[in-house]
Design a protein that fits this description.
The protein is of the alpha/beta class and 165 residues long. The protein is 33% helix and 19% strand.
């Protein structure tokens, strides 16, 4: 994200969302990058399926003077309709480690890494809707490893009309 700072600032995002916020440091960093003259012109929303992670995210945002909402939920399920076409910056560091399907979708600590088959069971549930969530100038940042099949993920995102770099 740091190398994208100038580009992100030119977008002038109004809504920034991190799915699976964990510690909240990524959203706090993003918000700090986007501040202009110390002022924040965007809304920050973080979601995590784990209640402990949500509490840590709240603390991280507060300690970094970031005003944001933290919601305990799976992906964006409760907000997807309300945020449809509104997200300017979407960040997702999914549970991408290849594990058993039983581990994927947990609400415990393993929810941070357990991605199930090909490490994509959680990720794929979001990928089909990203194009509906982003604003017309919205951008999506996703962390992948080779085992996740980056080319296949790229094709899936392109089939939703997104440009992939």
């Amino acid at each position: 994200l740091e190398s994208e700072q100038h580009y992100l600032q030119t977008l002038r995002p109004l809504v920034c969302v991190e799915i699976g916020s964990g510690s909240g440091i990524v959203l706090a960093f993003l918000s700090t990058l986007l501040k202009t003259n110390g002022k924040c012109g965007h809304v920050c929303i973080a979601t995590d399926v784990n209640e402990h992670a949500a509490r840590v995210t709240r603390r991280t945002l507060e300690r970094n003077s970031v005003d944001g909402d933290v919601v305990v939920m799976d992906l964006l399920t409760s907000l997807s309709t309300r945020l449809a076409g509104q997200i300017d910056v979407l960040v997702f560091n999914p549970p991408y480690v290849v594990t058993s399907s039983e581990e994927a979708g947990s609400r415990g600590l393993e929810s941070a890494w357990a991605g199930g088959e090909k490490g994509r069971e959680v990720m794929d549930r979001l990928l089909h809707t990203v194009h509906q969530l982003l604003s017309s100038s919205g951008v999506f940042y996703l962390v992948l490893i080779e085992e996740n099949g980056p080319e296949e993920v790229s094709c899936l995102l392109k089939s939703g009309g997104l440009k992939v770099e």
